[in-house]
Design goal:
By secondary structure, this protein is α/β, with parallel strands linked by helices. It has a single domain, classed as 3-Layer(aba) Sandwich (Rossmann fold). The two termini are 20 Å apart.
Length: 269
């Protein structure tokens, strides 16, 4: 399992923050991570200090069926395939295609980097998604093996999660039998806030089976880092938020190992 979708149809929940900083934490451990920004807002790119033209984005990669020249090396072991606003019109362009749900999957399987297939060169591919359940989202889920859901510790946060889980299961049944709900992360966690604790308790009650133990605390440092085009781990490496992402990376790798061992055990039965 190496291709992960970071998804929540609600905006402002910390989805791009989670994608960028977990990827950076893993890259600091020597894991090669490619962030694929498949959101027309292109926040993953701007959050890493990258702004591109249409010709340099994943939109053009889809047109040319080629990724090599579009991938940017951000830091050691951290790479980005950036997005652009042109992705807004993609759904209309895909509408009449026979394999419209598989366009992103086909691209990732077709493309190479430094002479190797993307799925061989990179240890992980993280796909940042738009805040919606659309054809773009279907493409992301069809291309992925694991789903990671950020959960904002604020009012209305739990609304829509059941729909999201049902959508993931529907994509699994329809287009992608390898798809699995891999994890859920509590974002913007403030233990002094009563509502935060209530949301966390509800999440543990209903989603304990995928909830990570590590929580990401609420901090202005995250927004400051993004304004400078950096991950928070590069902006302030010893801050509590950075330490939380490092802990999450450890938990992510441990869960992945346990999942793969369980899958091998099932296959051998």
């Amino acid at each position: 399992m190496k291709v992960f979708a970071f998804i929540n149809q609600k905006g402002g929940v910390g989805k791009t923050t989670l994608t960028i900083n977990l990827a950076r934490a893993l890259s600091l451990k020597g894991q090669r991570v490619l962030i694929v920004d498949f959101d027309p807002q292109a926040n993953a790119g701007s959050g890493l200090g990258v702004r591109v033209t249409r010709e340099e984005s994943i939109y053009q990669a889809l047109v040319e069926e080629e990724c090599q020249s579009k991938i940017r090396e951000i830091a050691s072991c951290l790479y980005l395939l950036p997005s652009s606003i042109d992705l807004v019109g993609l759904e209309l362009e895909l509408a009449n295609l026979e394999r419209r749900e598989f366009v992103l999957k086909d691209l990732l399987e077709l493309c190479t980097y430094q002479g190797k297939p993307l799925l061989s060169f990179f240890d992980f591919i993280f796909i940042d998604s738009p805040p919606s359940l659309s054809l773009i989202t279907v493409n992301i889920l069809t291309a992925s093996q694991g789903v990671v859901i950020p959960l904002q510790c604020e009012y209305y946060a739990l609304e829509g999660l059941s729909l999201l889980v049902r959508t993931v299961r529907k994509i699994k049944d329809t287009f992608n039998p390898d798809l699995r709900l891999f994890g859920m992360v509590l974002m913007m966690f403030d233990p002094r806030n009563r509502l935060t604790m209530e949301i966390a308790e509800e999440a543990r009650k209903h989603f304990k089976w995928i909830l990570f133990d590590t929580v990401i605390p609420k901090s202005i440092r995250v927004s400051e880092a993004q304004s400078f085009g950096k991950s928070v781990l590069d902006y302030e490496p010893h801050h509590k938020v950075s330490e939380s992402f490092k802990n999450l990376a450890e938990e992510f790798l441990a869960r992945l190992q346990n999942t793969e061992l369980a899958l091998k055990s099932i296959e051998n039965e």
